[in-house]
Amino acid sequence: MPCRKNVILMFLAAAAAGPLAFSQPVRAGGATVAAVRFNGDRFEPAKLTVPANQPFKVEVTNADNKAIEFESFDLHRERVVRPGETITVYMAPTAPGHYTFCDDFDHSVTEGAIEAR
Amino acid sequence: MNRRTRGWLVGFATVVAIQALRMPVRNERAPGGFAAPTTVQSAVRAACFQCHSEHARWPWYAQIAPVSWFIHAQVGEARKRLNFTAWKDYLYDPGTAARKFGAIDQMVRSGAMPPWYFRALSARGRLTPAQRAAIESWAIEGRADALKAESH
Ligand SMILES: [Cu+2]
What we know:
The structure holds 2 protein chains of 2 kinds. By secondary structure, chain A is α+β, with helices and mostly antiparallel strands. Chain A contains 1 helix and 10 strands, in the order αββββββββββ. Chain B is an all-alpha fold. Chain A binds chain B through residues 73, 75-80, 87, 89-92, and chain B through 80, 83, 86, 89-90, 92-96, 99-100. The structure holds copper (II) ion.
C-alpha cells in the first residue's frame, strides 16, 4: 500500500493525464472544432471524436516541410495543406460512424479516422 | 479436333466460366446533388456520369467479364476521386469545392477526361469544342466563387 503522499500524487497525475488522454474537441461558436496535426509521418491524434448529426470543423495543421493532401473519401473532402499552414475543413452533420482520412499525396502515411457518435 | 479448334474452345469455356464473377457496376446512393447550367449539365451527364456518379448505365458489352472487371475498377477509382452524386458534399466545404472545380477544368482542358477508351467506345463521350468550353468556364467560375467563399 503506497503512503498517503504517493496516493495523492497518483491522483493528481491521473487528474492531469485524463483530459490529455480523453481530449474532446472544443466547441467554439456553436460548432465543434476538432484539431489534427500532421507531424511528418502521421496524423496526431490518429482518431478524432465528434458529435454525430451536427456540423463540425476539422482544423488541420501541417507541421512538416512538404505539402499534404488531407483527403477523406468517406466524407468527400479534399484539401491541400502547405507546410506550416493550418486550414479549416467544414463538415456537414454526419451520421454516427467511422470515417477515415489520409494524405492522398503519400499513401505510406497511416490513415486517420473521425468517429462521429 | 485440331489444336486451333481446341484453343478456341478452351478460350470460349474460359470466358463463359469467368462470367460467374461478372462484377457489374452498382449504383449505391440516391440520385441528386449536381446542379449546373443546362449545357454543362447535359455535357457532364453524357461524358462523365458513367464513371463519376451513381447513375452508371453501361451497355451490355461492359457487363461481360473480363471487360466488366476493368470497367468496375475504373468506376470505383473514378467515383472515389470525383462523384457528382456527392456534389453537395463538396460544395459544403468551399476549399474542397475549389479543388474539385480546378481538377475538372484541368482534366477537360488537357483532354485527359473522359479517358481515351471511353471516347472510343461511346459517342456520348466525345465532347464538342462548345461543350468543352462550357464545362471549362463553368469550372473556372465555380472555383473562383469557392475560393472567395473560403477566404471569408
Ligand atoms: Cu486527392
